[in-house]
Design a protein that fits this description.
By secondary structure, the chain is an alpha/beta fold. The chain is built from 13 helices and 14 strands. The protein starts with a helix and ends with a helix. Bound molecules: pyridoxal-5'-phosphate.
């Protein structure tokens, strides 16, 4: 699905030097590269504040902690997504309120979110899934009207741009109270281990997030609040400083792969290529097609036999996960999320795909649909 080795080999000398430099300086925790990376992220994504942390799941947890949620407060999350957001809601003894998603964008929108509102609702976590922003104009408007906080989970969408109603263009993660991202290796901006970051435009929140991520310390050994230990390693920051130089080109490579898939798969009756939201650019962390449920697993198997990996993100919606059966509130039957779990298939997508690999993949997909 991804080819991290080929990508590394292209920038090997720079990355090796950066790692060697860290080893020589042995400043492994909070070394200068961590601050440098935060500054690069701040500039690159036009955010007032960026605070790095240990991973994207911690970023979500820290965001909820910083927003002063109390036991029993409700937080709205989509049913069709990765587990992280709902997991940390549960961990903090808050209540995940699980709503359906739009079947085309795979994301929540204002109308769907409004179904989950109650007097206890405190926050919404839109997940910008697969590389494209959720419908933020409506979600921001709803949050403003209802006095709710927004935490944008941008783990899969760093670099996606969204056009707000005044024509203002903002990056994923910089529109809500806090935006979070992950540097997990397969993310668009991935390190060589775990890493994450939080974006905010609010100085007080930035201060709180920074304290929370470092044991609630205001200065060393003086603890103002209960925090956690969630820091980005200096080594990972050094690697990311090399990789961020190429992120725009990496995203462009992904878009080129998506264009190739689009052109070659759009004619196949049984395939729905990814919908493009005209308000959001797409950075294609995943290229996810929809095929009829009766064919999806057969297609996956057909490709597997021919050495073509594909993945089902995600096979089970949140409200069917055992971990949430006792603690969540489920809004309606969530038909779109069920449908998507049975019909989605993500194809190989990364920055190093070659024309011959792409042709091989689409030829086999075409053959499959001819044969059935
Ligand atoms: C990867 C991911 C996360 C979690 O990031 P980690 O760094 O692995 O903790 C959270 N949300 C979404 C949507 C993700 O894809």
């Amino acid at each position: 699905m991804v080819d991290l080795k080929s990508q590394y080999l292209k920038i090997k000398s720079d990355v090796d030097w950066a790692i060697q430099n860290c080893l020589e300086n042995s400043n492994f925790i909070n070394g200068p590269q961590v601050k440098d990376l935060e500054e690069q992220l701040r500039r690159h994504y036009n955010s007032s504040y960026v605070i790095s942390c240990a991973n994207g799941t911690d970023a979500l947890q820290l965001a909820l902690m910083a927003l002063n949620m109390e036991k029993g407060d409700e937080v709205i999350v989509p049913a069709f997504t990765y587990i992280a957001a709902a997991e940390v809601i549960g961990l903090l003894k808050l209540k995940p309120v699980i709503v359906d998603v739009d079947p085309d964008t795979f994301n929540i929108n204002a109308a769907i979110t409004a179904n989950g509102l109650s007097s206890k609702t405190k926050a919404i976590i839109p997940v910008h899934l697969f590389g494209q922003c959720a419908e933020m104009i409506g979600i921001l408007e709803l949050a403003r009207k209802e006095g709710l906080k927004i935490i944008e989970d941008s783990a899969q969408s760093i670099g996606a741009k969204y056009t707000l109603s005044e024509g203002q263009v903002k990056f994923a993660g910089t529109m809500g109270n806090v935006g979070t991202t992950s540097f997990f290796p397969s993310k668009n901006l991935g390190c060589y281990g775990d890493g994450g970051a939080m974006f905010t435009q609010d100085e007080n929140l930035a201060t709180t997030l920074r304290m929370l991520a470092n044991h609630g310390q205001s200065k060393k050994y003086f603890h103002e609040i209960i925090g956690v230990n969630s820091r980005l390693d200096t080594l990972q920051a050094a690697i990311l400083l090399e990789k961020i130089k190429h992120i725009d080109q990496y995203n462009e490579s992904r878009r080129a792969v998506a264009r190739f898939y689009d052109e070659n798969l759009d004619d196949i009756q049984d395939i729905a290529i990814p919908f493009r939201n005209p308000k959001s650019t797409h950075v294609f962390n995943q290229y996810t097609i929809k095929v009829p449920a009766s064919l999806r697993d057969k297609l996956k198997e057909y490709l597997q036999i021919r050495d073509i990996p594909s993945m089902i993100y995600y096979p089970l919606p949140l409200h069917k996960q055992n971990a949430f059966s006792k603690i969540s509130k489920v809004i309606g039957d969530l038909p779109n999320s069920h449908m998507l779990c049975n019909t989605v298939l993500s194809l190989p997508m990364h920055t190093e795909m070659e024309e011959s690999q792409l042709s091989y993949i689409v030829d086999n997909i075409k053959d499959f649909f001819k044969s059935c």
